[in-house]
Amino acid sequence: MARPVLRHLLVTRPAGEATVWAQQLQAAGWPARPLPLIEIGQPTDPAVRSELVRMREQAPTFDAVMFVSGAAVTGFFEGMAPTAWSSATRFWAPGPATARRLAQALAEHRIDAARVDAPRGDADQFDSEALWSVVRMQIRPGSRVLLVRGGGQADTAIGSGREWLLRQCRDAGAQVSICMAYERRAPAWTAEQIDLARQGMAPGALWLFSSTEALNNLAQLLAEPHWQQASAIATHPRIAERARAMGFGHVSHVRPTLPEVLAALESSWSHP
Questions:
Q1: What's the CATH fold of domain 41-184?
Q2: Residues 162-188: what's their mean pLDDT?
């Protein structure tokens, strides 16, 4: 059976990430376009910003600092003066992209990337559950863990796993603190972006989703959408479940790596 021709490949990550992914997919011959469904910004609440400053000052004394995303790394370290961190502090990341961003940020503080803990490259999923299997032996009664996250609409795929990991830390006797380093918002689309999204409802359209929040924002941005003829690739099973619930005609899931996304495209689609 002939594979359908891919006409539109829409990358829904936040703006900077979406552009990089789209360029890499274009280089492989696919008609990728960035269509960000999440906007990343600084916290707007003065109290949250003050708490972030305070936690930046205290972070070097924690036993472990977990960053939920690359945006959390950027928001936390941006503008932070070089700091003398405890030699025992470990830095946790739920996946390879966040781990790379974290290693770059730590290099500016002269901290070895060997202190970054993340799921193995061959892990079934890149998420909190996979991370816990790597870091659980670090936690003792009295250990202090700082979670650096974003604020805004909850992402159920990320949020449920993150809360699960924090429960594991607390159950093991750790003291957990949380700070918000950025805010997630639904984007304000241009007329051109709205038109591109509507093209994404047609046969031959494929969406690449990396969060349930992106799907929720899409449902709000388009009035009366019809997704039965469109397809989606999701980077986590829970994200795939949300896409199916929204009515996407065909949904598959792969890990959030470029080689696996490219393999999924080659196995199911023809180049235009």
A1: Rossmann fold (3.40.50)
A2: 92
Same CATH fold, 41-184 and 8-38+187-268? yes
The rounded distance, in Å, linking the Cα atoms of 37 and 56 is 29
SS3 6: coil
Are 218 and 225 in contact by the 8 Å Cβ rule? The answer is yes
Query: Phi-psi region for residue 199, left (φ > 0), alpha (ψ -120 to 50) or beta?
Result: alpha
- Three-state SS at 37: coil
Q: Give tens-digit pLDDT for 224-233.
A: 778 999 999 9
**Domain 8-38+187-268 architecture:** 3-Layer(aba) Sandwich (3.40)
pTM of the model: 0.83
The domain locations on the chain are 8-38+187-268, 41-184
Question: Cβ distance 85 to 68 under 8 Å?
Answer: no
| Pick from 214, 231, 102: nearest CA to 157 | 214
What tokens were used for 71?
């945006």
